[in-house]
Amino acid sequence: MTATFTEQIPQHGLIVSCQATTGSPLRESMIMALMAESAELGGAAGLRANGTADVAMISSRVDLPLIGINKLGDPAGVFITPSVQAALEIVDAGATIIALDGTQRPRPDGSSLADQLAMIKAETQVPIMADVDTVEAGMAARRAGADVVATTLSGYTGTGDGGPGPDLGLVTALAAAVDCPVIAEGRIRDESEALAALAAGAYAVVVGSAITNPVLTTRRFVDRLGTFAS
Ligand SMILES: CC(=O)N[C@H](C=O)[C@@H](O)[C@H](O)[C@H](O)COP(=O)(O)O
């Protein structure tokens, strides 16, 4: 029996997203696996990773629940696990939870989110997390069969809050609107923002760049030092 999302991820847990895009000095699956091992040592409750190579490498070395995504195609469109095949490949690679674009936008093959979810569910019982941008999208994704909804895409689709921090308003609205766990993901920069997300009703939080992207962390320090007036 496949474990449900809440059986895998404890309430108020920290999920660490270990991703590095093409062009990053960290763009190696082994480096992502070492990031994942570091997150495990630090007490993370779960991990999130992109692509079959990284997911396979991480799952061979770290025994934590692993949210797998398979980013394919144009980042301006539906690109987080945009097809049934992309989802099943990430499960074969070792993901214990699938995350996918949960917006109402048609998939690149023309199918709807509801079609995609139904076809994935016919093939696997692995829980599905819908990355959404609005409360309407979260409600529709839940109706279509998503097990969990996350604020991941708020600010990235032309709708929602594109502010510098997490979209706490969306966390609050989703927590009131859906009967499943709500995950706060996207632009959580520190522990206070993670706590604020829990206070807004998040079941758990996903933190990526603030933990696993040293380029951004360095830039933040450099930019701040640049404001020093002697
Ligand atoms: C919009 C999009 O493509 N988000 C991606 C989803 O997996 C990742 O690039 C983010 O790093 C991840 O969501 C964690 O967010 P943050 O790195 O802000 O903590």
From TrEMBL:
Keyword Isomerase: yes
Assigned EC number: 5.1.3.9
A Pfam family hit: NanE
Alphabetized Gene3D superfamilies for the sequence: Aldolase class I (3.20.20.70)
Keyword Transmembrane helix assigned: no
Signal peptide as annotated in the record: none
GO CC annotations on file: cytosol
InterPro entries in UniProt: Aldolase_TIM, NanE, RibuloseP-bd_barrel
Pathway info: Amino-sugar metabolism; N-acetylneuraminate degradation; D-fructose 6-phosphate from N-acetylneuraminate: step 3/5
Biological process (GO), any one: N-acetylmannosamine catabolic process
Protein name, per record: N-acylglucosamine-6-phosphate 2-epimerase
One MF term in the entry's GO annotations: N-acylglucosamine-6-phosphate 2-epimerase activity
Primary role: Converts N-acetylmannosamine-6-phosphate (ManNAc-6-P) to N-acetylglucosamine-6-phosphate (GlcNAc-6-P).
Top-level division of the source organism's lineage: Bacteria
Reaction(s) the record says it catalyses: an N-acyl-D-glucosamine 6-phosphate = an N-acyl-D-mannosamine 6-phosphate
Native organism taxonomy: Bacteria, Bacillati, Actinomycetota, Actinomycetes, Propionibacteriales
Organism, as annotated: Microlunatus parietis
UniProt keywords, alphabetically: Carbohydrate metabolism, Isomerase
